[in-house]
């Protein structure tokens, strides 16, 4: 369970395996605990790092904004001596991974975007706001947050809820136009079930914006396909990274048929 001071703050991550480096970024107001169950399987042939974003999990609970998270991904690579890494992101993590590729394309080998959001707007924003509002936290949700962040979980959730309402937060993570500049190999995955907070249309729009992107939509499946169909998703991720690792130039991967 490594820890390090990056950009002046304590950062925590879980790590296993060897091979191509894969950094995994969790979703909003969550932590590495939401992804760590996938570490053993994905670490077969890969060096996998499941990180706690600054302000969450077992990293420093300092108030943080998206630019901090992008800077921390680059700082983690520097700390580990990595010139670049494959980035996986779930929900908010997908937005951070994509923003890192936009701002620092030389530090990203490929992108794996799980139930991504291209921008928070309309009912998507309202749905996320209702889910993250402290007033909506029931006893079950409180237990979950305590497991993710520790006894001061209320600070974590309130900081995130407050910060996400700042205009600069959402402006920086509005990726509708910036995503068109991405030429890195990109895999987009999702279950086909409706989810207001993670519209299916956003995954399809990203697949159109990123030239040559792979798009895998698993039928009759919850939006969080890594949890709903882990073995199939592991296979898709491994296939994708294997193809990227075999390329000599950082060009987009061959498209994967829509399923």
CATH topology type: Rossmann fold
Shape: globular
The total strand number stands at: 8
CATH architecture: 3-Layer(aba) Sandwich
Largest beta-sheet characterization: 8 strands, mixed
Keywords:
disordered C terminus; Rossmann fold; 19% strand; alpha/beta; 259 residues; eight-stranded mixed beta sheet; 10 helices; globular
Describe this structure in words.
This protein is of the alpha/beta class and 259 residues long. It has one domain (3-245): Alpha/Beta hydrolase fold, catalytic domain (Rossmann fold, 3-Layer(aba) Sandwich). It is built from 10 helices and 8 strands. The chain has helices at 39-42, 66-80, 92-103, 122-132, 139-149, 153-164, 167-172, 200-209, 225-228, 230-245; strands at residues 3-6, 9-16, 20-25, 46-51, 85-90, 108-114, 186-191, 214-218. Strands 1-2-4-3-5-6-7-8 form an 8-stranded mixed β-sheet, with helices on both faces. The termini are far apart. 44% of the residues are buried.
């Amino acid at each position: 369970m490594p820890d390090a001071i990056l950009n002046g703050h304590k950062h925590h991550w879980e790590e296993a395996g060897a091979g191509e480096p894969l950094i995994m970024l969790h979703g909003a107001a969550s932590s590495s605990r939401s992804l760590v169950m996938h570490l053993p399987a994905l670490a077969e042939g890969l060096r996998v790092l499941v990180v706690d974003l600054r302000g969450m999990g077992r990293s420093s609970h300092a108030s943080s904004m998206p630019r901090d998270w992008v800077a921390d991904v680059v700082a983690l690579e520097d700390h580990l001596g990595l010139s670049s890494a494959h980035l996986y992101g779930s929900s908010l993590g997908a937005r951070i991974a994509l923003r890192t590729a936009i701002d620092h394309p030389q530090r990203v080998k490929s992108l794996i975007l799980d139930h991504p959001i291209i921008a928070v707007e309309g009912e998507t924003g309202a749905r996320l706001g209702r889910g993250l509002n402290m007033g909506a936290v029931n006893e079950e949700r409180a237990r979950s947050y305590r497991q993710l962040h520790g006894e001061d979980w209320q600070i974590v959730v309130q900081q995130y809820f407050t910060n996400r309402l700042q205009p600069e937060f959402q402006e920086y993570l509005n990726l509708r136009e910036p995503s068109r500049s991405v030429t890195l190999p990109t895999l987009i995955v999702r279950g086909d079930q409706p989810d207001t907070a993670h519209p299916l249309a956003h995954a399809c729009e990203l697949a159109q914006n990123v030239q040559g992107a792979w798009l895998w939509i698993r039928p009759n499946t919850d939006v969080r396909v890594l949890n709903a169909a882990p073995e199939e998703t592991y296979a898709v991720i491994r296939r994708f990274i294997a193809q990227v690792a075999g390329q000599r130039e950082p060009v987009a991967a061959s498209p994967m048929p829509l399923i």
